[in-house]
Amino acid sequence: MKRIEEIVLHCSDSTFGSATIVKSWHTMPPPMGRGWRDIGYGVVITNGYWTSEMVRDKERWEFANGAIECGRPFDTDINVESNEVEAHCYGWNNRTIGCCMIGKNGVYTIDQFLKVRELLVGYLLPRFKLKPKNVMGHYEHDPHKTCPDIYMDSFREFLDDPRVISNLMCDVTRRKHNQLNLDRR
Fold first, then answer.
1. Structure letter (DSSP) for residue 2
2. What is 2-184's CATH number, 2.40.50.140, 3.40.80.10, 3.30.2290.10, 2.60.40.10?
3. SS3 of 148, please?
4. Where are the alpha helices (DSSP H) in 45-164?
């Protein structure tokens, strides 16, 4: 049994989803899924698009934009029991909690950023006696990953001071513009 040392931030690498949908991607047998017993993340933050059709038709469910959904169960003590080990960051699962934001290429909503900050600063970090420096992006543990596709130093600064959300949103705008240019090619 190990103590929770970090929260690892992820992206779903999709423009839509929910904890239920991500769980299906993780539990379906290969090659369609990963064949795991459960969703890999402890928490999922949705963007209001639950299907690819909703994205195509630009029909966001605003009530679900920034919704916090439970993934793989964990309790509130600072130790990771064997039944609480997640599957989100190879080599780190037995001492971290995975938090996945639904999004792709670093494109998230303001509501997602505000809710993930509320979750981390208002609950998870104090509960597990952690600081913003203990929130890591998946890519910071695996050099072959880019997830969550945001600058984690800027994100940790946002955890300390919510007024710097503009730094994160400017990056999102740049990424959206670059993605539109790539899609047109």
1. E
2. 3.40.80.10
3. coil
4. 52-56, 110-119, 125-127, 152-160
